[in-house]
Amino acid sequence: MRILKSFLVVLFLTVLNSGYSQKIFTEKDIQIIPKPTQVVVKEGVFKFSKETQFVVNGDFQKEASTALIHKFETAAGWKPEITTKIPVSNFIQFKVDPALKNEAYLLDVNPMSITITAKGNAGFIYGLESIRQLLPEAIESQYVVTSARWEIPAVTINDQPRFQWRGLMLDLSRHFFDKNYILQTIDRLAMHKMNVLHLHLVDDQGWRIEIKKYPKLTEIGAWRVDQENTSWNARLTVNPDEKGTYGGFLTQEELKEIVKYAATKNIEVIPEIEMPAHVSSAIASYPELACFDQRIGVPSGGLWPITDIYCAGKESTFEFLQNVIDEVVTIFPSKYIHIGGDEATKTNWEKCPNCQKRMKDNGLKNTHELQSYFVKRMEKYINSKGKKIIGWDEILEGGLAPEATVMSWRGTQGGIDAAKQGHDVIMTPETPCYFNFYQGPQNEEPLAFDAYNPLNEVYKFDPVVPGMTPQEAAHVLGGQANLWAEHLPGPKDSEYMIFPRLAALSETLWSTKESRNWNDFTTRLTSMLKRYDLLGINYAKSAYLVTATSSADLAKKQINVTLKNEFPNPDIRYVLGNKNIDHNALKYTNPIAFTETTVLKASLFQNDKPVGKTFTDTIVFHKAVAHKVNYLTPFNQNYKGDGPFQMVNTIRGSKNFHDGQWQAWLVNDMELVVDLEKQESVEEVIIGTLESQGAGVFFPVQLKVLVSADGLKYKEVGKVNRPYAVNPISELKDFKISFPKQNARYVKVIAGNLKKSPKGESSWLFVDEILVN
Question: Which of 109, 412, 538, 744 could tie 707 with a disulfide, CB 3.0–4.6 Å?
């Protein structure tokens, strides 16, 4: 009896303590991205332990379960078992319901068991991914976490995607990414419930797929001359006799492995085999594919216009492409093959006798119709292999077969036009779906394409364009992010551009339009970012960055600085001078006025602590502020800055030379005079400049400062000669010219333009401020 009483006391205390410590979950604790369609939180929790069992029926359920089991093994230190028999409690089971839609799932969690109901494998995968996000972030740890509570709330989640196409394109041509990185990306796509991986395998700068019938495609076309120390668009034309050493390719066996693995994650891998343009790598390998059998090297960098394209007049061109397709279809079981079709400059077709004969024989009026002939002919062959084609929206030019699917990248108009014509459409407009664009202030970001797609703009994206009829909207399969890799030499660079923008895109493509809410998303994103940290993903923290815009009140000689951030109602705090950003920082509410040289520091705060990188800027007042500037050589009208006082308004430009704070000269030297309006003692002039060689913007090659008392007679007081040097990065630089003190009213500044780039193109000179001290 005493033993029984002791047992009952222990049992009572155990139940009491268990109940006391059990967390009470609410809907705010459901941090899943993308947001599920319907969530109902119930009482209680399901606790995972080493006794937990996964009840499976078949190899796929076993394989899908293994991914989550491995996470427990790594992070918890114990391994749930797999069984085929349903135990009394503490188990996860899978149920098939043919009535559900293909990727839908019903997740039912109670303290005794978890049930995932789905039509098939896709729903089971997504149910498991939701369980993963219901678990503590520590489940992503690479080491055992002893402090974690491996429990999830009792909940019912009824979920399904809004769009059937939820994709990401990786450009393997501009920089090669190997099999391991692609497999890693597949895991991360599945985590976000994305289901398409589009591999851009062919472009001018590299052929990345092994074709056994044409070995030169990878012997020659996969390798380019290494000019990686030079800005992408400043790289020189390659001699075809110079051997390429930079690049790589995927074997057919590697690609088959990628495809097989992707299928276990419900991800379809779509190959892109470009035609008729973006194929310099193929022509470098087999010159006879071009109109005039021209020998070229594989380009090492930017190429425009793209004139070396497949000859549309030679039968051998189509024989080559058909043979390539024959091997491609044995690797990729996908429903689609992407054929590119964009940016073909047809000047060679207009001169080529073979192309002109083809046009005459087929009654084609112009080279647009010849491209349409090209696309339709290849489409017919691809259709004969049981596949459909996708092309960029240029394939609409000259007419298109109704079975073709259009990927709209030049905005959404191409997609609208395609849908009106009855074509299926995948929306991937540059804004906001090009992930090679900057996502934060250029001064704080790694080099990217000179445009801006921040996280909040990605979240606003909707593939269905206002004004579409229901019939047109029905043709919209979904959307996709494209990551072009000109500026991405390695996996960590690629990750930085993908995440967390992929999280925003996943929600726009999966969740109902009505359930999407930026404030709510940013709250849930905090949990996802912790998972990224544990997974070792090099994600961008750009959304945390504080940015500043300035306006000048020249009459008052006052600068007003406005601070902002991507997050809704951000808690931004700032300090002036050399103080630290801490709990004593001032809360930002209105623009800050400056009338003298001051250091400004600002940061986003969360839970009374600064997060992200601290914004720091020095507002510099100098003797030339708000004084008249006489331009002896006028600036280019495309870059007028903030007007005639741009050079003396204290507002500095950023690496984004479209920010409105730069004046520029094309080929011409800059020559201007600052009128200080009275005699001043001066001893230093600073000229603020920008270099972005890929965009044709170069530092000055010479700088001169002259001073005058009367504006007629000038004396040279300082000069800097700076010869051209290769510079692969975008860079801001202040050139300082110091000299013995001079009394002067007029300060003349001359900046020498490079005139022509090493590629022979006209060069730009950009200047944002002339500081006189």
Answer: 744
